[in-house]
Amino acid sequence: MTSETLTRESGTIDKVAAEEIRSVVVMTDRLRKLKKEWEDAEPQVYVDDTLLFTQSWKETEALPLDLRWAKAFAKRMEECPIQIRDGELIVGSLTKFIRGNNVTVAMKPREILAMCESGRFDRKLSDISSTAIDPEDLRKLKEDSEYWVEHMNPVNYVNEALREELGDSHFDLMFDRGMIFEGRAVRENPDRGLFQGWGAFGGGVGQPSADVINRGLNFVIARAQAEMEKMDASGAKLPGSASAALRKYYLLKSIIVECQAVITFAKRHAALARELAAKETDPTRKTELEKIAEACDRVPAEPPRDYWEAVQSLRFLHVAFWKESSDRPEVPVGRVDQILNPYYQQDLEEGALTRQQAAELLGAFWLKIRETENLVTIKREHRAAPGTLLPNVTLCGRDENDRDLTNEISWMVLEVMRQIKLSEPAVYIRYHENMDEKFVLHALECNRDFGGGNPAFLNDGLGTERYLVRGVPKYDAVNWNASGCLGYHLDCGEHMAGSFNLNQAKVLDVTLHDGFDTRTGKQLGPHTGDVSRFTTIEQFYEAWEKQEDYFADALRKHYFIWWSSEIANSPMSGLRAAMHYEDCIPAGLTSREGGARYKVCSASWVGDKGITDVGDCLAAIKYLVLDQKKVSMAELLKAMDANWEGYEDLRKMCLNAPKYGNDDDYVDDIYNHVSKRSQEILQSRPDPFTGEKPLLFKGAAAGHVTHGKAVGALPNGRFAGTPLYDGGISAMPGADTHGPTALINSATKWSHAYELAGVALNMKFSKAVLNTPEKLKKMAALVKTFNKRGGWHVQFNIHSAQELMEARKEPAAHKDLLVRVGGYSAYFVDLPPELQEEIVERTMHEVG
Amino acid sequence: MTSTKGTVFNIQRYSIDDGPGIRTTVFFKGCPLSCVWCSNPESQNLAPELMHRDSLCKRCFRCVEACPAGAITVGSDGIVIDRDLCDACGECVSTCTHDAMRITGKEMSVDEVFDVVRRDADYYRDSGGGVTLSGGEVLFQPEFALALLKRFREAGFDTCVDSSGQGDTEGLRRLIPYVDLFYFDIKHLDPKVHRAETGRTNENILRNFAEVAVSGVPLAVRVPVVPGFNDSVDAIADIAELVAVHAPRATVHLLPYHRYGQQKYAMLGLDYELAAAETPSEEFLKAARAIMESRGLACEIAV
């Protein structure tokens, strides 16, 4: 190819290249067929892996835990059924089904057994349909479950450690009682199985590393072997004891075992491809199969030679992590554009690849990701996650010299997303204000055509800043990606899925009752005064801060004991240590255990949910009770305790009091005060593991439903037990009536934003808001201003037909749904039925 | 000057259809015209009015008792509001627990309006946007409009005025120096037809159009394309002729008629005369655009 295809300046791609990418046909006949097969396939429960896991566990009884884990992984990689489906280019599946639900019974034996007995297997990605299971598989799965129920660890080490250190009353703060803390349903769900809490690795989650893809797993194996030889020759030289040396030795061995297992898995695919090629009569397919064989022989053991092999290597490593932690599958895909672009550019220059071919391969990879489903094993009402596997893809960002890293693959990923229309993976753009506007417009156009909130825009500067302030040098601080549910992590560490959060709405609920919890009937917090005697807002602040401080202290102890008991009792993963070989091999520890380059990598998140609710509640009290004196606090408390029954007028007054999200300083000042103070209180004590300022997280993508259940009626007009506001900085549903700029202004008035992760601003628009190039530009400007004002994460939901149908059925719940047509806008609920119908039809774009 | 007050029925932020960039649109209440197709009937009266959203009404009838004027009664299907008795006092609004009642229209000072508009200054800067005065009819409250425009100019905000053109020419002249862009409606050139459908002839509008055209302020001409009124080749060609002669550099926006305002008529207790009218065909809109373009005018069809 000529030089016009090269990136001319940082972040800007050639106009001709951009146009070519925007006109590729992702849905070729091949991908259409594969997608159709996926759509038509019935979800199936896949049991082969769990049976292999159990078999391996039985065979390794006498071995150290880390090695047992490695061997159980290797067994699955070496013996699980593999397949290459007709037409596939990128191979390597988690299960043998096109839509497969993988389970590892050892992790949740009682729950799986209950499912076997009821015959109903709920899928994580759908609340309405269950998944099928072959009768013979069901028999084997039941047998496996019965084995594990009998043999699992009878002691819940997380719970017992909490009880020993903090006493039985500590449980009153937890999930199934007072719910001051977010957390797993520890007591509702005491039998996680082999491991407790967050599963096999506590909260840590691995992901493929660009560096390891580039060097190949054989390189890492050689490094581990060299380290073992060094230990042999000159001793472990680790501080502490023989046990540290022994643990390091077994971690090194696990690295070798697990990396070799992934290579074996790849080579098995190479052999299968060759076998199929030999039988293949169609010469085109025969050539493809031969290429697949060549690629699988080469990667991920060795460095990829071309783009195809790079995609295949990324696929193998991603599926390997899924295979390894089937009970905790939120494995990010990572910075796909940064990983693949060098190979892509090289192939383009050599004329070995066209953009069309590159797009089809990427689409094939996307479909492989979407094959995987996951069973719901936690009771639905206790679930914190929204039912996704979170294979997050991150694009763009800047390097340490502030050069924009947007490249042709960044463009192509969005184009694939737009055309393939799959609900996963979610795409995150590391946005900054100097990005090429053309790319932002492309992203917004893809967002419009895709529909729901994809891609999301993250503030690149803030993401990096949070690491810089914790002493991470810039060259590493700039290398981060989105992971988990609204989280993110450094490439040189790993994602911490665990987070320890205060239920802020509940803290307020307790504050308004002088430390008493109406749910448990117990005095959970200190006595901070009868609020009906308070005459100033400062008195409310003071009482709330005392409660906040008390619970923040309890939360920190809770975090320390929970997390350390997880680390002490769960295995170290060789595969994950392999991704950070440079640090983890000499340290003899995985990232979470402290083997990473920076302390911040071994800390979990501390945070809260519901602080926006608190702002609105205190604003309603200030407005109605203290300023306007329309009602006494005693009367308001009575109404809340009656869950507003017989107090409908008062509830309406509360609903009409100033609400966050409308750029109204009256309430925003109160919100800012409590938000800032709660942050200061949560960060007033150092992280118990790193000694550094705790990492804050305000994720409330779904936990707002479970948390809301424990909270009584509140002064913002909310009913008892109903969900809290979602997203961490979203407004009360339907209460932000002044449009997107007002909501953004409310969300970005604070000056302490750089410390907050997990806050997502969800904005809803109708398609008409993005239907011309000019309007796309206006949306791009909106993203820019959001970013410049210090906003962290924004995503746009373009109304789906389903939402509009719901609005037709339930107008009261959708009063804020604004529909724009031409130079005129209307509330959807105000439109006559036939026009609603028309708009529903116009908006119809389904996403699978 | 800033103590000047006016009546506004809505201030819409993130307004993206009323001029360049992200804008805030201040909708003036009160209009001397009464176009049968008007999609904002709440903008016609200068006085505040009660709007009832029947889709949210739960038939609790608490508003009936709350109304001090006795303007609300129970009808065969929901409530009935006697518009002659209602003085928009708002008692029913605070009584209704379902948000089915709303008062449209509010007297505001220049300072109060400015306090809303200034809040989006960051967005104007990043998008090349600003503030738009619309209506109702801006020229119906010329002192208020002038005071606002001066205030916006001082703050450095881009200004746009969206007008039907009906109003005192002297009042318009005083606004012109403070306007960065005019959106000017031209509906029909035949004064009789004009009067039949809008309640007024068009002499005053055409005079004001010439005034704006010679001022040199950038201008976009907006033509609502309404079936049975001006959806004929002749009517469109007349408008093209006018614009080509007076304002050859103006862009023409064709705004196809739609019925989205229909429900608002019911909410205000008004009859909707155009209930049977259809949206103009795409074919006709394209033909209309071709006519504009044949006169050398830039033309866009609003979507």
Summarize the entry for a quick read:
The complex is a heterodimer of chains A (848) and B (303). Chain A has 848 residues and is an alpha/beta fold. In chain A, helix 2 packs parallel to helix 14, helix 4 (65-79) runs parallel beside helix 10 (242-279) and helix 5 runs antiparallel to helix 6.
Description of the structure:
The complex is a heterodimer of chains A (848) and B (303). Chain A is α/β, with parallel strands linked by helices and 848 residues long. Helices cover 49% and strands 9% of the residues of chain A. Among the domains of chain A are: 41-152, no CATH class; 170-190 and 498-571 and 603-733, no CATH class; 220-302, no CATH class. In chain A, the strands form eight sheets. A five-stranded mixed sheet of chain A has the order 7-8-9-20-19. In chain A, strand 21 and strand 22 (824-827) form a beta hairpin. The longest helix of chain A has 38 residues, at 242-279. The two termini of chain A are 36 Å apart. Chain B has 303 residues and is α/β, with parallel strands linked by helices. Chain B has two domains: 5-46 and 105-301, Aldolase class I (TIM Barrel), CATH 3.20.20; 49-103, Alpha-Beta Plaits (2-Layer Sandwich), CATH 3.30.70.20. Chain B contains eleven helices and 13 strands. In chain B, helix 5 runs parallel beside helix 6 and helix 9 (233-246) runs parallel beside helix 11. Chains A and B meet through helix 26, helix 29, helix 30 and strand 22 of A and strand 1, helix 4 and helix 10 of B.
